[in-house]
Every structure is written in C-alpha cells, then in structure tokens.
Automatic annotation (TrEMBL):
Species of the source: Jhaorihella thermophila
General function of this protein: Hydrolysis of 6-phosphogluconolactone to 6-phosphogluconate.
Protein keywords: Hydrolase
Entry's Gene Ontology molecular function annotations: 6-phosphogluconolactonase activity
Pathway in which the depicted protein is active: Carbohydrate degradation; pentose phosphate pathway; D-ribulose 5-phosphate from D-glucose 6-phosphate (oxidative stage): step 2/3
EC number: 3.1.1.31
Protein name: 6-phosphogluconolactonase
Length: 223
C-alpha cells in the first residue's frame, strides 16, 4: 500500500480528481471502453465535482457504484443518486451508468441481472473506494452475515449484505472484483480513519475488510 498525505481536503479532492482523470485517459488509449467504480457516502462528492469537468472520452466510460443501499433511486441515501447527480454531470454526463439497483423489494431477486450487466466490464479499469471508521469498504462490513462468502477468492460479482449497523440491505461488489481492479485508490479523511487504517494493517479481512483490497492500492489522506 502506498499512502499519500495532502495538506488539506480541497487539495486532496483536486489532486485525486486529476489523477483519476489521467488514469481513465490512459486506460482509454488501450481499450474501447473502460470501467470506473466509485463509492457513495460523504467523502467522494468534492472529487466528483472536480472530475466531472475532465476532458476525456466520457462516452466510452462505464461508471458503477462500488456498492448500493437498497433504497429507491431518488432517496437521499442512494449512492446511484449521488453519482448521477454529482459525477455524471458536466462533461461526464456522456458516461454510461451501470446501476447496482432495481425496483424490487429484495436485492436477491435481481442479482443475476445486475451481475450480467457488470460482467462485460470486468476487470474494473479504475477503482475509487471510501472507508468507514469501522474499516468497511464498499459494503463489506466487519461481522456482517455473508461477509466470508463476499471475501472468498471465488466469490461471485455481487453479494447482498445486511449489516446490523445499517438501516437497509446493501449490494456490494465482492472482494475479488474490487481487488481485481487494474488501479485501486482509497480516500480517507480525518484522524479517526487514519488510525483505523493503521490498526487494520494488523488485522484479518473478516475484522477489517479494507485489508482485502490494500495490496497495490494507493491511500489518499487529508486531516
Ligand atoms: O455507500 C457507502 O456507504 C459506501 O460506498 C461506503 O463504503 C463508504 O465509502 C464508507 O461508508 C465511507 O463513507 P463516508 O465517506 O460517508 O465516510
């Protein structure tokens, strides 16, 4: 793992957006289409605000969430809503969005269809992840039922998790899919997450799921 520290959160957002735009451009030189997985939550918004203006062939970029909360797509808690309203605007409005959601009560009902839409776009070209202070990434939460299956090397593309700490079921890309990304970035803000990351390095993925994706990843941090 490579750790990059920034003087403040604004600089981090600008620099990470530039870095991601450069990586997407390079990937587009080698392939007709590229895939870009991004997290929800509060951290990525300012990165999206800068990245959406990048001058690249967005119409050849497939954007997908790393995980989704099973709420209506117009809910404030929907990662799809965050991504479509804050990243897929400006120049990036030309990108294709691959939702991890459908209007069914249970995510299990549509998992095969969602997986079939994603499969042609793997491995992920570029991956951006957030991390919780509990050391979860995407929706791989410590102690959640089904975590071991989602961390397994032969896990399918998607898993459903129902973490006790969260108000709704989640759909998440599994560890092998996240780990298989050709480029991996994790963005963390604040002292608590930095300490959690240090602690995670001595733990196993079932206690600290972030460790499942740390190898070869660049972690970007600002206080
Ligand atoms: O839907 C989600 O919640 C995420 O994709 C999740 O993995 C997120 O990246 C972390 O929870 C960090 O969230 P914050 O950025 O809000 O701290």
């Amino acid at each position: 793992m490579n750790l990059v520290e920034y003087a403040d959160r604004d600089l981090l957002a600008m620099d990470v957006a530039n870095l991601l735009a450069g990586e997407l451009k390079s990937a587009l030189l080698a392939r007709d289409t590229v895939s870009f997985a991004v997290p929800g939550g509060t951290t990525p918004g300012p990165i999206f605000d800068a990245l959406c203006a990048a001058n690249l062939d967005w119409d050849r970029v497939y954007v997908l969430p790393t995980d989704e909360r099973w709420v209506p797509q117009d809910s404030e808690r929907s990662n799809g809503r965050l991504i479509t309203s804050r990243l897929l605007v400006n120049r990036a409005a030309a990108a294709q969005f691959l939702p991890l959601h459908a209007d069914t009560e249970n995510p299990e009902d549509v998992l095969p269809e969602l997986e079939a839409q994603i499969a042609p776009h793997l491995p992920l070209s570029v991956l951006l992840l957030g991390m919780g202070a509990d050391m979860h990434v995407a929706s791989l939460f410590p102690g959640a039922p089904g975590l071991a299956e989602a961390l397994a090397p032969d896990a399918p593309i998607l898993a459903v998790t129902r973490p006790a700490s969260q108000p709704e079921p989640r759909v998440t890309l599994t560890a092998p899919v996240l780990n298989g990304a050709l480029s991996k970035h994790i963005v963390i803000l604040g002292k608590d997450k930095r300490e959690a990351l240090e602690k995670a390095r001595f733990l196993e993925p079932d206690e600290a799921p972030v460790t499942a994706v740390l190898s070869g990843a660049t972690v970007h941090w600002a206080e």
